[in-house]
Structure formats: structure tokens, C-alpha cells
Amino acid sequence: MFKILKKRELNEQVTLMELDAPLIAKKALAGQFIIFRTDELGERIPLTIADYDREKGSITIIFQKVGKSTIQLGSMKEGDSILDVVGPLGVPTHFGTDIKRAAVVGGGVGCAIAYPSAKALNNMGVKVDIIAGFRSKDIVILEDEMRAVSKNLYITTDDGSYGTKGFVTNKLSELIDSGADYDLVVAIGPVPMMKFVCEVTKPHDIKTIVSLNPIMIDGTGMCGGCRVKVDGKTKYACVDGPDFDGFKVDFDELMRRNSAYKNQENESKTHICRLTGGVRHG
Amino acid sequence: MANMQPTKTPIKEQDPKIRARNFEEVCCGYTPEEAVNEAKRCLNCKNKPCVSGCPVGVRIPEFISKVSEGDFEGAYRIITTTNGLPAVCGRVCPQESQCEGKCVRGIKGEPVGIGRLERFVADYMMNKTTAPEKIAPNGIKVAIIGSGPSGLTCASDLAKLGYSVTVFEAFHTAGGVLMYGIPEFRLPKATVMHEIDNLKALGVEIKTDMVIGKILSIDEIMDMGYKAVFVGTGAGLPNFMGIEGEGLVGVFSANEYLTRINLMKAYLDEYDTPVKRYRSVAVVGGGNVAMDAARCAMRLGADNVYVIYRRSEAEMPARREEIHHAKEEGIEFVYLTNPIEILGDDGGAVRAIRCQRMSLGEPGKDGRRSVSPIEASEYDIDIDCCIMAIGTSPNPLIRSTTSGLEVNKRGCLIVDEGMLTTKQGVYAGGDAVTGAATVILAMGAGKTAAKSIDEYLRGEGK
């Protein structure tokens, strides 16, 4: 059992939780993830480790309430315990050496995953720009945290209600065109966003790392549910990734595979709303 | 006087038409009367060929003679001196090539139903509480990585010798392939959990959610005071064919499909993990895993389930009984056929599998007959789901995070005859050493390793 030490609502949909998990906290590195299962009937869902405190023995997860399991996790309180947390899984992000200037691009809740990457780069002495995109002002998250680990923080909103109006890709293009000499771009967010970031960086040949989010079950390499095509080869995101060279990823296949259970997800969401209001009984 | 009936005492099974749509156990097991009748068929041979066929050396004629006397508890005590998982073995061992394959009664007629009797005894005792044996602890800690058949057997034997045993398991439930791989209708999960509870009663500690190589390394485990480590991590990395279309929606490894169903219980409404009910399913492969996947697909409501195998029925590695059960349940076998591409629709979902007919050649060096494609024999089978059951390889996680562990070309850990790896104090067994094999061979390896670990640790104490 893994106790919830702290819970903070970052916006209406996004929740931060600090979990008591000393062994995971001891080993976790930027780019790695955990798999959780709330209770005996639950499914196994992957979440990136957004932060860790080795001394306190805790890890931080930030998640968007998009379906049954995340809604259920979001309904748990400080002091409650989650049945299973497995990790740290996946390969830590390898940024490479001699990087002087980097752009970290986060989309929506992806900013929670982009944040530890920016922090790690900043700690390496890299000059980091963060471009964080949101639909509108009311869902902006982690602004102060991101500002603290970057030279420049650019916030974009689709509707222009905060920061610059437009998408992260517009801002990234603009910065590159105006002479920002990036050695590396890290893009984390919805699959279409990562795909479009790669389309911006490719003509300039700027190394671009993406963090993929396929469907996972075990997260340890024993099922291949998370397989993605990278450079024409099949890779398991849970053990070979989740980070990959963005120029080599087949994003279209990933998008198709991620929508495989859409109908069932929707059914289970409405199901739980109707019967139990999001709380599982017995 | 022995019962000289030439055939095994019949056993009750669920009707194929009914069972093909439920996950309840196919074989209902013997009643006490049937078990006694079958036990009386044993001739109690002096040289006991059956025992030599059992990888864990169960004292077969001794336990069977207790059954024939109606002393089922006595029979259980004899079995469990050498076998920690009798309810599992009685159900899933390929007895025809092991104990029963050596039975003298099999020369003229059918062999004694040893597996059925072992299962009967274990099931009979499941409802009785037995006081755990009192074992004096020796205070020496041993770590087991992986809680599949090899790890559980090794843990059981070491605990009975007084060692303080901790099992580290990556999944949220112990049991390995017994829980995620073999379906409920062949091996009820309550039975597996009961056998694991028996181990816990012996004092074995099981730590789940522990991916060794990530959360702790083997070196760190040894630093924590464990004097020896047994690696029983299996061969869980699924192989794909490498053909076009394997990235389509509706293509699964058998591991994924079976894990969703067996471990995550996706076929039950109250569980959150989804699995789809496909209309027409192709399972590629000819082993027990292929049979399990095909029979699960049928139980989830498929209209057609095809098992596509590149050799003929005679070469199939699956147990005869499983092939027989699968056929009874309406699964179609497509022999001498090999997939060359999976075809998708506009939305990226599977719509058909393109196959090529094969011809059988002469046996090769490994004794298996070679196959070669017949030219211009391509044809398509309409499907909406394809499950790859073409074998698994050992996961590289342990070897890549432990210095001094050597592996062969196939990624299997190299061990000596006592199951010692190339690293001092680290032993290994089961599929991690052999590649994908059987439950009982893994148990045999766990047993051998436990003996070696005991000798090693006693030697060190001197």
C-alpha cells in the first residue's frame, strides 16, 4: 500500500499527489514512470514521475482526470492509500552532453512531465526555454515551478486568454526563426502536438526528444502492448523508452493504437458516473 | 488385488458447447470413490519408472497406495515432501511425456491417471486445515527473484530447510505464468492462491510490485544481508514475427491478451481493464500458449477462432489434451500455413491475415521437420484480431543490471548442473535459463537450485 502524503488540485482536471514510496524515490530519475492500480478491481495505468524527494522518500505524480481510473485516483484523499505502485520504470531521459541551449515544450498536462526534464537540464547548466501550451487561462499549471527552472518561460493559450495566443509550435517556430540556437528540443504532450513539434524542428535539424504515451499493461516488457514503431523497428516504450528520437517515431500508428479502446473507456466512464458517482463500492 | 481395468477411470468434464462460453474449469476432477478406484490400478512396481519421469521426484506409488486405502491426508503428506504445488502440477503437467509416459500400465492400455490423482489429493486437502510443520529457523536470508513455478518451488524447499526466504515479484500478484498466463478454465486462480498461501504459512515472505533491476539490483539485495539469490524471472518477453501489419489495432502478443484476461480479469464486468470481444480471431503458433489464447477468444464470444500453425498436427508442441479440448470447443486448426502479412482497414484495424501454404521436409539436426513455403499459394483469411503465440525470450532487465551474469546467444542465463550462474551466490532456473519450457521443468530447476543453495550456504558456515 502506498500512502497519499499530499494532494493539490492544480486546476479542475489536473491533480498533484505526493506518494510515500521510499524505494522508488531512491532510484527515480527524470523521464521515468510508475504504474499504479488503485484497488483490487483496478486496471494498471502508467504515470510519469513528476518529481521525487529522496530524503523524504516520496514521489510526485501529476495526472489529468480523463477516465475511470484517473477519476477514481482523483477522488482519493490525503492519508488514503493506493494498492499498487510499481517503479521506477523505463529508461531515464538521456539528453546527451555538450548541450548549451534547449527548448522544453509541454502541452497541457504534459507540462508536468516536461517540468522534470527542464529541471534536470537546468541543473546541468543548460540554458532552458520552456514553451508551455494550454487551451485557456483557467487550466494553466505549474507556472511558478517552470519559471524557476528556465531562463525564459513562454505560455501560450489556444484562445489567447493568457500569454501568447496560439499553439506551442507557433511560438517554437518564432523563437527558432528569431535566432534561438537550440541544440535540443524536448517535446511532451498529446501525440499530435509532439508530431507537429517534430515538423517544426526537422527542417532545422535540431535534435528532438519526445516522450511517448502508448497504452501499457505491465510496464516491464512482458506484453508488447506499448509497442511503437521507431525508425521502422518495433520498440517497447516501457523498456526501450518512453523517450525516443522524435524524427524516427511513427506518430500516426501511435495515434491509432491509442484510440483502440475509446468506446470502452467512454462506457466505463459513464457507467461509474451513473451508478456510483465515481466511488467504488465493495 | 489391483484393479485391472485397461483404461483410466473416466473423469467428468463440462460439456464442450457450454464450457466454450464460460471460464469455469473444464475438468471437474475425481470424486473420492473414483480416485480410490483409479488408485487401485497402480501395480506398485518395485523399480518405480513413473518416479523417474517426474522432474521433482514425487513418490508416486507411495502416495497412490495411500489414496487406494482412502487415506487422502497421508497421500498429501507424501506428495508435499517433494512438491510444493500439487494442485498446479496435477492440472498442467504434460503427464503423457513424464510420469504417466513411463507407467507400466501404459504398455497394454492406459497408464494410471497419476496427474488426476495428484490433483484429487491436493483439492481434497484444500478444504481441510493442516497445521503447518514447525521448522526451526536458521536465520540465513535467501532472496528469490520472480514468483513463478521455479521461484515458488525454490522458496518452498528452502523454507522447509529453515531459511528465511523473501520472494520479489514485479507484478501485483504472485504466481507468474500460473496467474497471468494459464487461464482459469485450466487452472483456477483460487487454487494457485491457495498454494501460495501454503508457502506463506511456511514463513515465506512475498514482496510484490518489485521490479528487480529497477527498484533494487541483485548487488543491493546481497548488500541487504541476503546470502544467496535465486533468479527465476522466466522468459516473458514476447516475440513477434516481424511481418507487415503487426502495429495494427487488434494485433496482440499472447502475453498481452492472456494478461488482460487472466491477471486483470478483463472478461468480468466489475474489473476495469478492457478486452474486446472480437468476431473472428487468428492465433498464430502451436504451443500451449496458442491453445490458451484461442480458447479464451472463443469464451469471449468469437464466431470463428483459427489456430494457424506452420507445421502439421503431429509436430504441434501443445499437450494432446489441450488440442483435443480446443477442437471440441469449436476451434479450427489451419495446419501447414504461415502468415506473411496482416492487412488493415482505413482506420488501422485488422481486417485479414495473408497466409502462405507450407510443405513439410525431412527432420533437421534438431529433430524437427523443416518447412518451406509453397509458391503462389497465398490466400487471405478474414479476421478482426490476431494473437501472436510464437514464443517468448528472457527479459534482459536482470542481466543488464547485474555485473558478472553471463548469458548465451538467446539471452538465457548460463548455469552449471547445480544451477549456479557465473556470479558467486547467484543461482537461476526455469525459463530464464532454458527459454520458454514447462511449469514442471521450472519446478525441477527450482528444486535443484534450492539443494545447491543449501549446500553452498552450509559449506560457507563451516
UniProtKB/TrEMBL annotation, chain A:
[2Fe-2S] cluster binds at residues 223, 226, 238. Binds 1 FAD per subunit. One of its GO terms (biological process) is pyrimidine nucleotide biosynthetic process. InterPro entries: Cyt_c3_hydrogenase_gsu (IPR012165), Dihydroorotate_DH_Fe-S-bd (IPR019480), FAD-bd_FR_type (IPR017927), FNR_nucleotide-bd (IPR039261), PyrK_electron_transfer (IPR050353), Riboflavin_synthase-like_b-brl (IPR017938). Pfam families: DHODB_Fe-S_bind. The keyword Disulfide bond does not apply. SUPFAM superfamilies: Ferredoxin reductase-like, C-terminal NADP-linked domain, Riboflavin synthase domain-like. One of its GO terms (molecular function) is flavin adenine dinucleotide binding. Keywords: 2Fe-2S, FAD, Flavoprotein, Iron, Iron-sulfur, Metal-binding. Its cofactor is FAD; [2Fe-2S] cluster. Residues 1-95 form the FAD-binding FR-type domain. It comes from the Bacteria. FAD binds at residues 62-64. This is Sulfide/dihydroorotate dehydrogenase-like FAD/NAD-binding protein.
UniProtKB/TrEMBL annotation, chain B:
Its EC number is 1.4.1.13. Residues 32-64 form the 4Fe-4S ferredoxin-type domain. Keywords: Oxidoreductase. Gene3D superfamilies: Alpha-helical ferredoxin, FAD/NAD(P)-binding domain. It comes from the Bacteria. It is an enzyme of class 1 (oxidoreductase). One of its GO terms (molecular function) is iron-sulfur cluster binding. The keyword Oxidoreductase applies. InterPro entries: 4Fe4S_Fe-S-bd (IPR017896), DPD_II (IPR028261), FAD/NAD-bd_sf (IPR036188), FAD/NAD-binding_dom (IPR023753), Helical_ferredxn (IPR009051), SudA-like (IPR006004). NCBIfam families: gltA. This is NADPH-dependent glutamate synthase. It comes from Candidatus Faeciplasma avium.
